[in-house]
Design brief:
The protein has eight helices and eleven strands. The chain is an alpha/beta fold. A hairpin with a 2-residue loop joins β5 and β6. It is globular, with a radius of gyration of 17 Å.
Length: about 240
């Protein structure tokens, strides 16, 4: 077992049963001209998550531990887009409309892709989802159970929306989650802090909150290769 300092108490995981979840590090949310900016958000606030998440990605790749990337987006014909989602907010461009990086939040457009700094490599799952939670209308749970995963290290954006939806769903399904505070981010700093506090409140009612440095310091080099990845490159949910 590997033990990581965290709130509300140390997070322990078996390196043979852990996976890294990288939630929605997409250009549409993190770059100018995307869906996030169309809602009036300052997308630069999410950029601070890239460097620490990159270090965690490197760790998991060196160790041969599974990595799963998610992308929020819809079919080109928008048959999986509810009006309840499409009509929220007061965006300058709505989901499916043409923007500087192609159709917003539509699979296959440039904006739907993951930022280059955190791009998937061969052998890592890429999971397309039509909603906020990573378990909703996807086969994420099947993938995790097929691999014997019991613990998740969670990174991604935004903390109070897609990350929070995912870790609450993970807890309901029996998975233990360590959310990395510096590898998650929000357009609203106060929402980020509030969501983190809710995760670890009441004795970790949703999960644990830690940092990338604490995780990296806790992993001994001797564990390298304990759980070599065996899957081939796959695109899920397309």
């Amino acid at each position: 077992m590997i033990t990581v300092p965290a709130d509300p108490f140390p997070f322990a995981f078996d390196p043979d049963h852990v996976a890294l979840l990288c939630i929605d590090f997409q250009r549409d949310f993190m770059e100018a001209g995307g869906f996030g900016e169309s809602l009036g958000n300052d997308v630069s606030r999410l950029r601070s998550t890239i460097e620490p998440t990159g270090r965690v990605l490197d760790l998991f790749r060196r160790q041969g531990w599974p990595v799963i990337h998610t992308r929020e987006g819809h079919r080109p014909d928008l048959t999986d887009l509810f009006a309840a989602k499409r009509d929220r907010g007061n965006p300058t461009l709505r989901i499916g409309e043409e923007g500087p990086m192609g159709r917003l939040l539509v699979r296959g457009s440039a904006g739907h892709g993951i930022v280059p700094e955190l791009a998937p490599v061969e052998g890592e799952v890429v999971l397309d989802k039509p909603g906020k939670g990573s378990f909703y209308a996807t086969d994420l749970e099947t993938i995790l159970r097929a691999r014997g995963i019991t613990s998740l290290v969670v990174t991604g954006v935004t903390t109070e929306v897609c990350v929070q939806s995912t870790v609450r769903e993970a807890n309901d399904r029996g998975f233990e989650s360590l959310i990395l505070a510096d590898c998650t981010g929000s357009y609203f700093p106060e929402f980020h802090q509030s969501a983190l506090a809710m995760f670890s409140a009441q004795g970790g009612i949703v999960g644990w909150v830690g940092t990338s440095d604490a995780l990296l310091d806790a992993v001994p080099t001797a564990t390298a290769g304990t759980a070599a990845a065996t899957t081939t490159d796959e695109e899920v949910g397309q």
